[in-house]
Amino acid sequence: MRVLITGVDGYLGWPLAHALARRGHLVAGIDALLRREWVAEMGSQSATPILDIDSRLTVFREVHGEDLRFVPGNVCNYDLVEEAIRDFMPDCVVHLGQMPSAPYSMIDAHHAVFTHQNNIVGTLNLLFALRDLAPNAHLVKLGTMGEYGTPNIDIPEGFFDIEYRGRRDRLPFPRQPNSMYHLTKVHDSANIHFACRVWGLTCTDVMQGVVFGTRIDALNGDDRLLTRFDVDQAFGTVINRFCAQAVIGMALSPYGRGHQRRGFLSLRDSIQCLALIIENPPDGAGEYRILNQFHETFDVYDLALVVQGTARDMGIDVEIKTVENPRIEAERHYYNPDHQKLFDLGYRPTRTVREEIRETLEDLGRFAERIRLCRGAILPSIRWRERKPRPSPVGGF
Ligand SMILES: NC(=O)c1ccc[n+]([C@@H]2O[C@H](COP(=O)([O-])OP(=O)(O)OC[C@H]3O[C@@H](n4cnc5c(N)ncnc54)[C@H](O)[C@@H]3O)[C@@H](O)[C@H]2O)c1
Questions:
Q1: Which residues line ligand 1 (CB under 6 A)?
Q2: CA quadruple 261, 365, 275, 124: dihedral, nearest 10
Q3: Which residue's CA is minimally distant from atom 44 of ligand 1?
Q4: pLDDT of 395 over the 60 cut
Q5: Strand ranges of the sheet holding 69-72, from the earlier edge strand across to the other edge
Q6: 318 CA from centroid of ligand 1 (Å)
Q7: Which of 73, 124, 128, 363 yields a CA-CA distance of 20 to 30 A from 298?
Q8: Measured between alpha carbons, how far is 307 from 357 in angstroms, rounded to an integer?
């Protein structure tokens, strides 16, 4: 299969490219290398030392005997997207090339507008290019479980049956996201649904939980293939931040009461699920398939306890100290999302969250010095309600 990955230089994109090449697929990628700049803007760096893009491409060829056909550039540039689709004629496009951080999108108006432009325009460009040049290709789009928010009822996989004033219908489940970033994913979902209904495109919208961890098998223990691993307040996801804090002996810092519940899955399982989705497209043209992608749900404070306990077994003592919650969100709530469809496709979780945390801590131990350099970027300063004065590095509106 010919698979085009937007965002191929990112946390998920880079290991996905390797995993797909190992499974015999031909891989192309687009990336504007923005994530590297955003993390630097947050005063941080990847805890894992990652190669520059040219070296990554050289190593890819060495390992797989095939080039990763790379297009440097921005998916908000329609001409670039059109040319990439025309040149490569993908069977599948995996769209990861977006700004993925809730706190980053909440810094100020500049960052919120930037996030909306970057994420929504990129998806629109892809939808139009697919409509006009490759209408039979399968679009796999990364959404997030955060699109749903935390309603006080069970969360289905995208759609639910509803009876209202004596009439019945099957409708998209309501979305109540909690950040400007998550809102972009909701808008994307509406646009993608439209493209399936009106243009007959075939798309899978993946409501992904929080991904964590350092390893996938295709990376073979070769440090040149390492994916990035961020620990700062904006780009470090919660388990990644807790693990980083543990290895440098810094107190783990759940926000508020810490009883926010979320779905989690390891990097290894995220890549497994994406490969299954790519290799098992929906049956019919015009289908808009939504999958909830996570392994286990956890309370954030319980996760901190797991990281603390695992670190203790490894001889590291760390405290847990809750910090004032910078976000506006429920700190204790009902949370019961479905996640059956990926299991039906063949997903088999490889590790429990606890086992994966142990491996992550082992891996990060080697990079403790790099994490120490990012220490000042870990705790939250971006608040959902207050504006923090700072110059805009992303330009005007
Ligand atoms: N990592 C997670 O826990 C998680 C959870 C749910 C959903 N997701 C979604 O999965 C996708 C990938 O996440 P990730 O963790 O790999 O993020 P990432 O930031 O590491 O990767 C995204 C990549 O896309 C590139 N990019 C961004 N905007 C671009 C643009 N306009 N043009 C070209 N390239 C652009 C970035 O440079 C980066 O390399 C994102 O859409 C994210 O929202 C991630």
A1: 6-7, 9-13, 30-35, 74-76, 96-100, 118, 122, 142, 144, 208, 210-211, 237
A2: 70
A3: 100
A4: no
A5: 69-72, 26-31, 2-6, 92-95, 138-144, 202-208, 288-293
A6: 31
A7: 363
A8: 7
Nearest to 332 by CA among 237, 255, 239: 255
320-340 pLDDT, tens digit per residue, is 999 999 999 999 999 999 999
Rounded alpha-carbon distances, angstroms, from residue 275 to 66, 245, 371:
19, 31, 31
The 3-state DSSP class for residue 117 equals helix
pLDDT in tens, 110-150: 999 999 999 999 999 999 999 999 999 999 999 999 999 99
Residues spanned by the domain of 15? 2-377
Cα-to-centroid distance, 312 and ligand 1 (Å): 33
Residue 384 lies in a domain: no
Closest residue by CA, ligand 1 atom 39: 10
Residues linked to residue 223 through DSSP beta bridges, in sequence order: none
Confidence (pLDDT) at 392: 54
Does some domain include residue 202?
yes
Q: Residue 391 has what pLDDT?
A: 52
Give residue 46's pLDDT: 98
> Distance (Å, rounded) from C-alpha 372 to C-alpha 375?
5
Pocket test for ligand 1, best of 4, 9, 11 (most atoms within 8 A of CB): 11
User: What pTM was estimated for this model as a whole?
Assistant: 0.96
Distance 104 CA to ligand 1 centre (A): 13
pLDDT exceeds 50 at position 396: no
Q: Is residue 252 part of a domain?
A: yes
Active site residues: 144, 181, 185
163 CA → ligand 1 middle, Å:
37
Q: Amino acid identity of 333?
A: H
pLDDT recorded at residue 221: 82
Q: What is the CATH number of the domain that holds 33?
A: 3.40.50.720
